[in-house]
């Protein structure tokens, strides 16, 4: 005799068959994805190779010269990367643009890991790292952290907002380009508020 028990969603259905030897459970339950961990590499070259492979597959068609720049020796230090048993699952970096401005660059999450909150956590961790960064003289490197996202990229916009970024303005890169949203996460040094 066989009966179906549905708990929660159809994907979590459990079919139980009763036989003389007892109850046999056949699970049609999806395997829960493992948690992501900070990527650890044996060498800078191994990190660069893993990152280049990840960006070629999941980096929104970045041109080869952009992948090369994003994985340069200087840029490797700016990456926040999370891995699972399959390798790099989510990654992004920040780039120092001016004396006070840094920009989030090359944010990507592997398709099988999207919709699980990894982007939001990665944006938040990247913001913490960028806003903690210091120049050689000890001054804060990034006072403003910005991210450029196209209006149609709703998952990234939600992830940025969950990570504390706020929409400031909307613009076009060129006359025929789609509109882009610029999200800024601002943190000013206490020195900025001091009366002089």
Task: Provide a compact summary of the structure.
This protein is α+β, with helices and mostly antiparallel strands and 196 residues long.
SSE arrangement:
Elements: E1 2-5, E2 14-19, E3 22-27, E4 37-38, H1 44-58, H2 64-70, H3 73-76, E5 79-84, E6 87-96, E7 101-109, H4 118-132, E8 144-150, H5 154-162, E9 166-172, E10 179-186
Parallel strand pairs: 7-8
Antiparallel strand pairs: 1-2, 2-3, 4-5, 5-6, 6-7, 8-10, 9-10
Helix pairs in contact: 4-5
Would you write up a description of this structure?
- Helix content is 26%, strand content 33%.
- By secondary structure, the chain is of the alpha+beta class.
- The strands form two sheets. A seven-stranded mixed beta sheet has the order 4-5-6-7-8-10-9. Strands 1-2-3 form a three-stranded antiparallel beta sheet, with no helix packed on it.
- The chain is globular, with a radius of gyration of 22 Å.
- The N and C termini lie far apart (84 Å).
List keywords for this structure.
196 residues, alpha+beta, seven-stranded mixed beta sheet, 33% strand, globular, disordered N terminus, disordered C terminus
What ranges have pLDDT less than 50 throughout 5 or more consecutive residues?
1-30, 188-196
Strand order of the largest sheet: 4-5-6-7-8-10-9
Tell me the series of helices and strands, N- to C-terminal.
EEEEHHHEEEHEHEE
How much of the polypeptide forms β-strand, as a percent range? 25-35%
């Amino acid at each position: 005799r066989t009966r179906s028990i549905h708990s929660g969603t159809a994907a979590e259905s459990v079919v139980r068959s009763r036989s003389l030897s007892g109850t046999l459970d056949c699970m049609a339950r999806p395997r829960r994805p493992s948690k992501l961990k900070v990527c650890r590499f044996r060498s800078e070259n191994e990190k660069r190779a893993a990152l280049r492979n990840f960006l070629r597959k999941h980096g929104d068609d970045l041109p080869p010269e952009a992948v090369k720049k994003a994985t340069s020796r200087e840029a490797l230090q700016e990456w926040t990367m999370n891995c699972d048993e399959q390798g790099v699952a989510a990654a992004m970096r920040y780039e120092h643009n001016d004396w006070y401005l840094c920009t989030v660059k090359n944010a990507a999450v592997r398709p099988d890991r999207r919709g699980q909150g990894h982007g939001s956590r990665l944006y938040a961790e990247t913001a913490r790292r960028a806003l903690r960064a210091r120049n050689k003289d000890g001054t804060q490197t990034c006072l403003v952290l910005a991210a450029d996202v196209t209006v149609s990229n709703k998952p990234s916009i939600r992830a940025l907002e969950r990570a504390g970024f706020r929409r400031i303005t909307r613009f076009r890169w060129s006359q025929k380009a789609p509109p882009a949203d610029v999200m800024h996460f601002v943190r000013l040094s206490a020195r900025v508020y001091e009366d002089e």
